[in-house]
Design a protein that fits this description.
By secondary structure, the chain is of the alpha+beta class. It has 9 helices and 15 strands. The chain has an 8-stranded mixed β-sheet with strand order 2-1-3-4-5-6-7-8, with helices on both faces. Strands 10-9-11-15-13 form a 5-stranded mixed β-sheet, sandwiched between helices. The protein has a two-stranded antiparallel ribbon with strand order 12-14. Helix 2 (38-58) packs antiparallel against helix 4 and helix 6 crosses helix 9. Bound molecules: 2,5-anhydro-1,6-di-O-phosphono-D-glucitol (AHG) and manganese (II) ion (2 copies). Residues 126, 129, 253, 285 line the site of one manganese (II) ion.
Length: 343
């Protein structure tokens, strides 16, 4: 039997796996030349709301058993569907912190003006992504984008603050409520992933500096809609099949994106007859994931141009989305372009 003396690892512990999210955010704050700590606080607010939604998610099955908990929960709130609950949780967290002036949420028809003109940031959020998977215990998520307002602090918010292209995001991320709960985010200096340790109530750095494989063998698309695709999409998927790629489609964008980000792959949600503009929303789904993809060395396009370059024209605007490993996205564009009927 070999016995070794313990040698403490003194090398750059600050960034090693196991660092808490709080500590990591603090350490990274110095990367923003003019940061006064508000973005850091905003990220902490989001993490707190994510913990609460995680808790709700974990008991979703129980809470739904024949209304066993009646119409109200322990806080005396109406028993609501998880996407509505998640919206309330994130709205509360974002409004209380004081850093945010306006919120765009999938669950709200209009921009929510927090009446906090001193807030520096605008947040776009899909509080609960993959809601069709809630009741069947399959991974779901939250997606968020953070923008710095364009108008000066202290003035009322305007459309200009809200309708910013993805390229202008200062931070973006997602939470994946899966076999473990993860928070993955970027502030434009790489992508880092944190895994939630339930017993400690903390997110710990588990996936530092995520880099997407530049190629992969997974394609993710709702193939049931094949008859609604144009020829370009069909050709590309046929090619994936010829190459014996694996088809993987969860139906929760966050989960499908996360898997492909780590393993290599492409996610496609094209225009269909039912959704001629595509199904996914630019402001609070596509943009955040496109920013993360970009920071991880992957690509995101609507088939014609980079998602990050699209100028939003409507709050709940939809877009076709093709996102994933750079070689796959480029190849997809090439095959689809030859048909000249891409989107
Ligand atoms: P949401 O639950 O926020 O409305 O988003 C659902 C989205 C996305 O998560 C998923 O990738 C896609 O809808 C699945 O759509 P199909 O069921 O049409 O495949
Ligand atoms: Mn969604
Ligand atoms: Mn949603």
């Amino acid at each position: 039997m070999k016995i070794l003396p313990y040698e403490p690892d003194n090398t750059s512990l600050a960034y090693s796996v196991g660092t808490t999210l709080d500590r990591f955010i603090k350490l990274k704050q110095s990367e923003f030349p003019f940061a006064s700590g508000e973005l850091s606080q905003l990220l902490r607010d989001i993490a707190l709301a994510a913990k609460i939604v995680n808790r709700e998610t974990n008991r979703a099955g129980l809470a739904n058993i024949g209304g066993a908990f009646g119409q109200t929960n322990v806080q005396g709130e109406e028993q609501q569907k998880l996407d509505v609950i998640a919206n309330i949780r994130f709205m509360r967290a974002l409004s209380k912190g004081g850093e945010v002036c306006a919120i765009v949420s999938e669950e709200e028809d209009s921009v929510i003006d927090l009446q906090n003109n001193s807030g520096k940031y605008v947040v776009a959020i899909d509080p609960l992504d993959g809601s069709s998977n809630i009741d069947v215990n399959i991974s779901i998520g939250t997606i968020f984008s953070i923008y710095r307002r364009k108008t000066p602090q202290g003035s009322p918010i305007t459309e200009e603050d809200v309708m910013q292209p993805g390229r202008d995001q200062v931070a973006a991320g997602y939470v994946l409520y899966g076999s473990s709960t993860m928070l993955v985010y970027t502030t434009g200096h790489g992508v880092n992933g944190f895994t939630y340790e339930t017993s400690l109530g903390e997110f710990f750095l588990s996936h530092p500096s995520i880099k997407a494989p530049d190629n992969g063998k997974i394609y993710s698309i709702n193939e049931g809609l094949q008859n609604q695709w144009n020829e370009g999409i069909k050709d590309y998927i046929d090619e994936c099949k010829r190459r014996d790629y694996a088809a993987r489609y969860i139906g929760s964008l966050v989960a499908d994106f996360h898997r492909n980000l780590l393993k290599g792959g492409i996610y496609l949600y094209p225009a269909t007859h039912k959704n001629p503009e595509g199904k996914l929303r630019l402001l609070y789904e596509a943009n955040a994931l496109a920013f993360i993809a970009d920071q991880a060395g992957a690509l995101a396009t609507n088939g014609k141009e980079s998602i990050l370059d699209l100028q939003p024209t409507a709050l709940h605007q939809r877009t076709p989305l093709f996102i994933g490993s750079s070689k796959m996205v480029r190849e997809f564009e090439q095959i689809a372009k030859d048909k000249k009927v891409l989107v």
